[in-house]
Amino acid sequence: MDCFAMKDGKCSVMKCGKCGGGACHFHKTREEQAQSLEKVSERLRSLPEYQQEAIADKYYGGVRKW
Ligand code: SF4
Predict the structure, then answer these.
(1) Fewer CB under 10 Å: which end of the chain, C or N?
(2) How far is the CA of 27 from the centre of ligand 1 (A)?
């Protein structure tokens, strides 16, 4: 299955590692996942500086990954 979460034959999203196939609601192609992450980054960059700093400190060890 062409899914961003599939790594070495296992699902990296589901704890059990088994792929649910076409019925899975988390399925995205690698391109769709990349677009999704870019949207997140865009949203983060649109926030005021103080909020970006707070998020970077709380979740990314002070580094802005966007
Ligand atoms: S379709 Fe769902 S279960 Fe299968 S690899 Fe993707 S995220 Fe995991």
Answers:
(1) N
(2) 5
pLDDT digits (tens, 9 = 90+) for 10-31: 999 999 999 988 889 999 999 9
Domain span holding position 51:
6-59
Return the number of other C-beta atoms located less than 10 Å from residue 37's C-beta.
13
Instruction: Please check the confidence at residue 60 and state whether its pLDDT lies above 90.
Output: yes
Nearest-angstrom CA–CA distance, 27 and 15: 15
- What atom in ligand 1 is closest to the CA of residue 10? 5
Q: Which two tokens stand for residue 49?
A: 């500086």
Cβ of 19 below 6 Å from ligand 1: yes
Q: Does the residue 66 lie in any domain?
A: no
Task: Name the average pLDDT for the chain.
Answer: 94
Q: What does pTM read for this prediction?
A: 0.80
